[in-house]
Amino acid sequence: xxxxxxxxxxxxxxxxxxxxLGQNILLCWRLDTxxxxxxxxPHYFLGRFSASLGDCAPVDRLDALNGSFIRELIxxxxxxxxxxxxxAVSRLRLEPVKVKLPAALSAxxxxxxxxxxxxxxxxxxxxxxxxxxxxxxxxxxxxxxxEQTSQLNSLSYSLNSAHSKLLKRNIDINFSxxxxxxxxxxxxxxxxxxxxxxxxEFMILVVADNALAQMAAAGASSGQVVPKIRTGFHIGSHFExxxxxxxxxxxxxxxxxxxxxxxxxxxxxxxxxxxxxxxFDTVVPTSSREEAYLIAADSQRFxxxxxxxxxxxxxxxxxxxxxxxxxxxxxxxxxxxxGQTVRRFxxxxxxxxxxxxxxxxxxxxxxxxxxxLGLHDSELPKKHTRRKADVRGNQRTKAFQGLRSKxxxxxxxxxx
Length: 416
What we know:
The protein is about 30% helix and about 30% strand. It contains 9 helices and 18 strands. The radius of gyration is 24 Å and the shape is globular. Residues about 335-340 and about 385-405 have low confidence and may be disordered.
């Protein structure tokens, strides 16, 4: 073990003491002559800025500025210059702590990244923009506990299988996931524009693997061991914190924020097999080259860019089916595939809050058969219709009327 690795292990043990079982969070750090300085804060400290950090309106301009400062402080790298570190100490009126090590840490990029990773595990992190997936199992509460376990295991296998297939294509998605109880939130550990596109490819393979597994299971078993799912893809902001394993933060994290809330509400009215794409603005690389520049993109442009790199999935084998071609498009897309203008669906939840979504369709041709994923146009609400969720016991509902929807939830259709 190198001397630098020994120092990092020592640092981890010392940071754990200042974290004190979660009593404190570590906001930022800076290099010092014989170690580092960190800025700890009581875990309830950020509650002072909850209005400006959340969806609420800030109390005043100062509150808004402080919230913006905190958000910037807990985003990305936590390493500050000596001047900026002292400025944060003064502004937040907190007491810095010197963490003394047996020797000075190197200032090279690898060491800085390693220390940053440690600090973030003992903190709360804010990510301004990241793609996140939600896979939701339909009618999960209506099957036996054994079938529930089998369905979660089946979906987990689809996630692992998709990851393995991408690795063989030299795409290391490096994904994280947390269970919702009846599904999974999944995200790329990197929050780059390229990572967002890679997660989209990952989604395609997961949904395809699940659909092929459903076909294989049909007639082979009387139980419902392969789940029917509905899927959401969205890009937005969130906070992140790490799960505790034993008495220390582990390597696995939870995320919660605008993007997860929107995904949950998007799928509340989704039909079985449906794939919803959120309404977002982001940037995408113009090509697969590392030096490609970034351009602005809305949801439609994002899907168009993602389609251009689908050729990389040709030849991939899923459930003994070899993919020959993949095409995906938003419902009503103009051109040969859609023939119409893109249609937007405005979902209003039980709280009266609305968001726009798009319906995604995926056509996959394999050596043996075509595989159609997502809901067909004929299964969707027509323009200017408005549907209310059906809550009559366990009766199956129409498109966009999920079992968990509330009577006030509704959907309206528009054309872009």
